[in-house]
Design brief:
K(+) binds at residues 60, 125, 161. AMP binds at residues 405-409, 434. One of its GO terms (molecular function) is ATP binding. With 501 residues, the protein is of the alpha/beta class. Helices cover 38% and strands 15% of the residues. The protein has two domains: 7-218, 3-Layer(aba) Sandwich (Rossmann fold); 227-500, Ribokinase (UDP-N-acetylmuramoyl-L-alanine:D-glutamate ligase), CATH 3.40.1190. The chain has helices at residues 7-17, 25-41, 59-73, 91-102, 112-117, 138-147, 198-202, 260-270, 320-331, 341-348, 350-357, 369-376, 380-385, 387-398, 433-446, 451-471, 484-499, and strands at residues 50-55, 77-82, 106-108, 122-126, 153-157, 182-186, 204-208, 222-224, 248-253, 276-281, 296-299, 309-312, 336-338, 363-365, 401-404, 410-412, 418-420. The structure holds ligand LZDS7PUF and potassium ion.
């Protein structure tokens, strides 16, 4: 299990640990952990390695100075770009500075051109960590811009400087942040490294607990998604089973001219194991889907919405007829997933929203940031500035499981529990992948999964399918949403094979 800690939680752990440790022990351990991570990235013959260390004015800078001393001791050619604190520094930072000055590391004063002209093996980013208060400006900003133009690997200490550790947003409206290839984060993992701009700036993340006793690390309400969270719902199938054993799902959508979306969702549902899949079209119901004749096409007005688990929204439109269909669906006692236009109609009608929140049956909402913004009455930028907060508020307000899509999808429960998903990649940034996700998640609900575990598994599988397709060369550019569907089936069956009871 990978818990994620907020800055406040990390500070509290630090305060609890410090009295039990010699002064400066945590910074020295962070320096050692930083050096170990750096050595793993350097060529075997360390003496040939040119390492640029950026040391900021705070304790993140202190970690960098300790790292510099260790790497110089290991024989690397270390250059330190030091940004002295405006006022008095912490004693442990002073000690780290002394150690670096006494080592073979060279303190340099390089401008952007000089930095750009040197063939560095590695840059270590110790400008700012969890103490960043405001956007990077002036010399700090231009150093970060210079580093981001280099080709070499960049190791961020604790987190990429310029990033908000809690939200993954870059600090400041026009802010900059280091683009690291690797991050070694201290004491505990941090949500901001895995969502919003976090994944693009943190690279591969590794955690060093700085040898703190596990008892010092309290339980958290935020975790990275993991198969173990939903594995108990993976079951091998019995011979003595039939289509009725695996539930009925109906995808409610498809207003005039928007029939592709519900079809995509329905195909995904079929290939994720639902026993029978209906497509209930708001208008223009086709006789059948020639590519997937297994799907049963109906006119929504004639379909008994109480007879199946429901996915409501793909291509549904927001016309009067669609609003009535949504109201009927919300009144059903069956499990329900609301996506796309269903979310837009809920945002525009407080009564429908209340009806949703009063539902007793399992309910999942799958908004992208703009849909979440409409539901919360804020802007998409405000949602992205605090994706975890937005998902938590929406889950609480709607009393439903919320899947806030985007880089590092955030899944929230009404009780405040949050999971950030780590699978997936930019190949998913194409039309229709949301419909595939809603069909997949709806299919798990139809097979009897609880809302929370269905959402965790669906988001995990959806991302994993994209990751597998990219390794096979089918992306990230040009992946079509429909291509995810067979890959999801493979990933699901493999997971059942290896994990199921
Ligand atoms: N958490 C732990 O147990 C340990 C953490 N370590 C490392 O320490 C940092 C946190 O250190 P902290 O000093 O609190 O914060 P930072 O180093 O991130 O930066 C704060 C200093 O930077 C100044 N500041 C902040 N924003 C800016 C800015 N945009 N431009 C210029 N200067 C800025 C700030 O000064 P103020 O002017 O705001 O007072 C601070 O001086 C953590 O991330 C770990 O790496 C320990 O080493 C190990 C234990
Ligand atoms: K940093």
């Amino acid at each position: 299990m990978n818990p994620l800690y907020s800055v406040a939680e990390i500070r509290a752990i630090e305060q609890r640990a410090a009295p039990q440790l010699p002064p400066g022990a945590l910074m020295q351990r962070a320096g050692q952990a930083g050096a170990n991570a750096a050595l793993d990235l350097l060529p075997f013959s360390t003496s040939k390695a040119r390492v640029l260390i950026l040391a900021g004015p705070g304790n993140n800078g202190g970690d960098a100075l300790e790292t510099a001393a260790h790497l110089a001791h290991a024989g690397a050619q270390v250059s330190v770009l030091h940004f002295a604190p405006a006022g008095a520094a912490a004693p442990e930072r002073e000690a780290a500075l002394q150690r670096a000055r006494l080592s073979d590391a060279r303190f340099v004063d390089l401008d952007g051109a000089a930095i750009g002209a040197t063939p560095w093996s590695l840059v270590v980013d110790g400008l700012f960590g969890i103490g960043l208060q405001r956007p990077l400006d002036g010399a700090l900003r231009s150093v970060v811009e210079t580093i981001n133009r280099l080709d070499c690997q960049v190791l961020a200490l604790d987190l990429p400087s310029g990033l908000d550790a809690d939200t993954g947003a870059i600090v400041g409206p026009d802010g900059v942040a280091v683009r690291a290839s690797h991050t070694i984060t201290f004491i505990g993992d941090k949500p901001g490294l895995h969502t919003c701009d976090g994944r693009d700036h943190a690279g591969l993340v590794d955690v060093s607990r700085l040898d703190l006793e596990p008892a010092l690390l309290p339980p958290t309400r935020t975790h990275m998604n993991a198969v173990e969270f939903f594995a108990r719902h993976l079951h091998k199938r019995s011979h003595n089973s039939h289509k009725g054993s695996f539930g009925d799902l109906a995808v409610l959508g498809g207003a005039h001219g928007m029939s592709g979306a519900p079809i995509l969702a329905a195909r995904a549902a079929l290939h994720s194991g639902a026993g029978r899949v209906f497509v209930a079209f708001a208008e223009d119901a086709p006789a059948y889907d020639s590519a997937q004749p297994e799907l049963m096409c109906r006119l929504a007005a004639d379909f008994d919405l109480d007879s199946a688990t429901l996915v409501v929204g793909p291509g549904l439109g927001t016309a009067r007829l669609s609003q009535e269909l949504l109201a009927r669906a919300l009144a059903s006692g069956r499990a329900l997933l609301a996506d796309a236009d269903a979310l837009n109609m809920l945002a525009a009608d407080a009564e429908l929203l209340q009806q949703l929140a009063r539902r007793g049956a399992p309910t999942v909402l799958t908004p992208h940031p703009l849909e979440a913004a409409r539901l919360l009455g804020v802007t998409a930028a405000e949602v992205q500035a605090d994706r975890i907060g937005a998902a938590r508020r929406l889950a609480e307000r709607c009393r439903a499981v919320v899947v806030l899509k985007g880089s590092g999808t955030v899944i929230a429960q009404p009780d405040g529990a949050v999971v950030i998903n780590g699978t997936g990649n930019p190949a998913l940034a194409t039309a229709g992948t949301g419909d595939v996700l809603s069909g997949l998640c709806g299919s798990l609900l139809a097979q009897g999964w609880p809302a929370w575990e269905a959402a965790l598994a669906a988001v995990w599988l959806h991302g994993m399918a994209a990751d597998v397709l990219v390794t096979e060369g089918s992306g990230p550019i040009g992946l079509a949403a429909g291509e995810l569907i067979p890959a999801i089936r493979v990933a699901l069956n493999r997971m059942v094979q290896y994990q199921a009871h």
